[in-house]
Write a structure and sequence with these properties.
60% helix; mainly alpha; single chain; 68 residues
């Protein structure tokens, strides 16, 4: 029997979205949530922006490096 996909699963697949899970200290997660609330941004949106910034910075730092 073929498994039925939920509408959100089909949307995620179509738009190339994945779920990412990791562990961290509760205090850090709570402070991050509070900071995002104060800034009026979503936690996932802020994490994506920080990831992109780190990726770009790392590419620039290692642009002459053949190890990447």
């Amino acid at each position: 029997m073929e498994e039925k996909k939920r509408p959100q699963d089909r949307w995620n697949e179509k738009n190339n979205y994945i779920a990412k899970s990791f562990k961290m200290r509760k205090e850090v997660a709570d402070e991050f949530k509070e900071a995002c609330d104060m800034a009026g941004v979503s936690q996932s949106g802020q994490i994506v922006e920080m990831m992109k910034e780190f990726i770009n910075k790392t590419k620039v730092e290692h642009s002459g490096d053949n190890n990447m």
